[in-house]
TrEMBL record:
<dbReference type="InterPro" id="IPR001638">
    <property type="entry name" value="Solute-binding_3/MltF_N"/>
</dbReference>
<feature type="domain" description="Solute-binding protein family 3/N-terminal">
    <location>
        <begin position="34"/>
        <end position="262"/>
    </location>
</feature>
<protein>
    <submittedName>
        <fullName>Amino acid ABC transporter substrate-binding protein</fullName>
    </submittedName>
</protein>
<keyword id="KW-0732">Signal</keyword>
<dbReference type="Pfam" id="PF00497">
    <property type="entry name" value="SBP_bac_3"/>
</dbReference>
<feature type="signal peptide">
    <location>
        <begin position="1"/>
        <end position="25"/>
    </location>
</feature>
């Protein structure tokens, strides 16, 4: 009886191993490579979790569309907090990261980026209602706070270089919360704060500072999908897919669905103030 049971167990183990090897061979023979893709879990409407714990949002929709277009790759999309994303791509646990990232010099030294951006993020100025400030041109000689390690700081510095005699006074500040930045604008310590519409609405909902206003869009960030070093072929494939998606209007459709506007048509001509 024991011998029969032992033979049965061995047979099951052999069968399981055979199935596993067949599946592995099938994946290899098909030429499809599995790609571990990370995105955020708390940044709506770009990347967050639905009520079932599944990743959703603009970034996720873009990644799924790229996956459909790349026959040689299969994306495994995982959502996690931002710090975990960075640690994971650095350790090799992720091949690709999508979290509305800008192509900063520091990041370009460590990672690969497609040529084509996958989203545009419009930014406006939070100002006092009676300031008369409506654009960056109105900020000549006026002050604005910005962290010196941020990409936005580099963008503002690039603006100053392109506009001699009309420079902004950029205060290099660190660890200043958005709410505290708005308060400084409200009490006159600084003339403006660079921010997003959604951020302004969210913070003002809590602060209720009635002497503040938001200008029209003054600057646009181009954001990119990021690949781990060594993933050159994958990076090139993603770039090709994104270029197709811009050309055929797919990215515009996804942006309209998730962001409420076609950021590509509305702001493509504003992607000229970029940090070098």
């Amino acid at each position: 009886m024991k011998k029969i049971m032992k033979n049965a167990v061995c047979s099951v183990m052999v069968l399981t191993l055979a199935v596993s090897m067949t599946a592995c061979q099938k994946n290899q023979s098909s030429g499809v490579s599995k790609v571990k893709v990370g995105t955020g879990n708390a940044m709506p409407p770009y990347c967050s979790l639905d009520d079932k714990g599944e990743p959703v949002g603009y970034d996720v929709a873009v990644l799924k569309e790229i996956d459909k277009r790349l026959d040689k790759y299969e994306f495994d999309i995982q959502a996690m907090d931002f710090n975990t994303l960075i640690v994971s791509i650095d350790s090799g646990a992720l091949d690709v990261l999508s979290h509305q990232l800008v192509k900063s010099d520091a990041r370009k030294e460590k990672y690969l980026f497609p040529e084509q951006y996958y989203c545009l993020s419009p930014m406006s100025l939070c100002v006092k209602k009676d300031s008369g400030i409506q654009s960056l041109a109105d900020m000549a000689g006026k002050s604005i706070n910005q962290s010196p390690t941020s990409y936005e700081y580099s963008m503002l510095m690039a603006y100053n270089e392109k506009n001699p005699g009309k420079e902004l006074k950029i205060n290099a500040v660190s660890d200043l919360s958005t709410a505290d930045g708005f308060k400084q604008v409200s009490n006159g310590q600084v003339d403006a704060s660079l921010t997003y519409q959604s951020t302004y609405d969210s913070v003002q909902k809590e602060l209720k500072l009635d002497n503040l206003a938001l200008t029209d869009v003054v600057m646009v960030e181009d954001t990119y999908i990021m690949c781990a070093k060594g993933k050159d072929d994958l990076n090139t494939a993603i770039d090709g897919a994104l270029k197709e998606m811009v050309k055929d209007g797919t990215l515009s459709k996804i942006a309209t669905e998730y962001l409420g506007q076609d950021v590509f048509s509305n702001y493509a001509d504003m992607v000229s103030i970029t940090a070098k």
